[in-house]
Design goal:
There is one protein chain. The protein folds into four domains: 144 residues, Alpha-D-Glucose-1,6-Bisphosphate, subunit A, domain 3 (Alpha-D-Glucose-1,6-Bisphosphate, Chain A, domain 3, 3-Layer(aba) Sandwich); 99 residues, Alpha-D-Glucose-1,6-Bisphosphate, Chain A, domain 3, CATH 3.40.120.10; 84 residues, Alpha-D-Glucose-1,6-Bisphosphate, Chain A, domain 3 (3-Layer(aba) Sandwich); 79 residues, TATA-Binding Protein (2-Layer Sandwich). 37% of the residues lie in helices and 21% in strands. It has 14 helices and 19 strands. Strand 7, helix 6 and strand 8 form a beta-alpha-beta unit. Helix 5 crosses helix 6, helix 8 packs across helix 11 and helix 13 packs antiparallel against helix 14.
Length: 454
Amino acid sequence: MSPRKLFGTDGIRGLANAAPMTPGMALRLGQAAGLWFVRGAHRHQVIIGKDTRLSGYMIEPALVAGFTSAGMDVLLVGPLPTPAIAMLARSMRADLGVMISASHNPFEDNGIKLFGPDGYKLSDETEAEIEALMDTDVSARLAAPAALGRARRLEDAAGRYIENAKASFPRGLTLDGVRVVVDCAHGAAYRVAPTVLRELGAEVIAVGVTPNGTNINHECGSTHPRYLAGEVLAHGADLGMALDGDADRVILCDERGQLIDGDQVLALIGESWAADGRLRGGGIVATVMSNLGLERFLRARGIAMHRAQVGDRYVMEMMRERAINVGGEQSGHMILSDFATTGDGLVAALQVLATIVAERRPASAVCSRFAPLPQLLRNVRFGGGAPLQHPDVAAAVRDAEQKLGDRGRLLLRPSGTEPVIRVMAEAEEYALVEQVVDHLCACIARVSVPETVL
């Protein structure tokens, strides 16, 4: 398999109207992906959704041109969450689903995610093959004039997703009398998320629902959850949920204004689903970043925790390998495969709300499942080379692991997109964590002549 240059862990992403995120690239991607998926004599179909970024108006028509030139019909659904595109691709038996979004990034960025006909993100191998095809001359393989694809709007796409999300909420329960603040980050869920909550009976305070093309994720949403906390306290809400730009992740907030991260949500869903007999595979899938406190909490209840590398696609891959139906990331990506084939922040929040209603306890009691161990993450930006391979760094790592022993955990992870080493440690004493991280950061800085330590 040839190495991928365009595709990262979550599709293609970059500054809009600059390489690689240009209309020309989107055109070539549409042609290459279209040709890769056109197999057989039936009419082939791709569903394209987007978030609310201004640059979506530039990327979307370029993709349409590419797919139609490859002979694929295009269904346009406009702004909808990423999980909606995955759901539609599968339920409508489309050949491909495409989401135009840069997720939690600022509006200046944009990205493209691809889903197969099964609703799952494409494998690394498939993305590499499509990328290789983009670098070849495909003109001779494009559709003849009479075989060009057509493009049209799918008018009921939002309604299909709304009903699908509502169906994830347990029968027999309602949100009557529950006050919820939902921060849609001026993003893809700005219409559907408040509608789902209202139709389930909640009193909804919707914020971040006036997109203008440039305000997506700006001082709101899952990357700025303190805004959510303020709104929860101001309105006396029972729960707050902050989605990101494409609504595949969520950060929650209890009635006291305390934030609830993905690890606590995994603990809640894992424990409650195990008690109900709904947890499959005997455990959950988290990532290497999830807190050791979560692992200990689950182990004490006979629930295994498997760690995947960072990235929701890798969480899902491990879930499928082990036949597990609950997985997620500390950052708020939650994958509940009984309901979705990718992360769905709204559906995850609905499971938390269901537990709050069923247990008749406040969010602060329901969502504080375990005491997390002190955890510290720092990024070291370096100028070049491979600092993790330096003998001084290797010695420092051995020393740190010896100090932590079985009381904690150490993780050094190079970024896949920039010259940054992520240094994370956790243990029962914060002083030990800080000492270990400080020493390792200083060592990496010393051997790599970094630009800065963040």
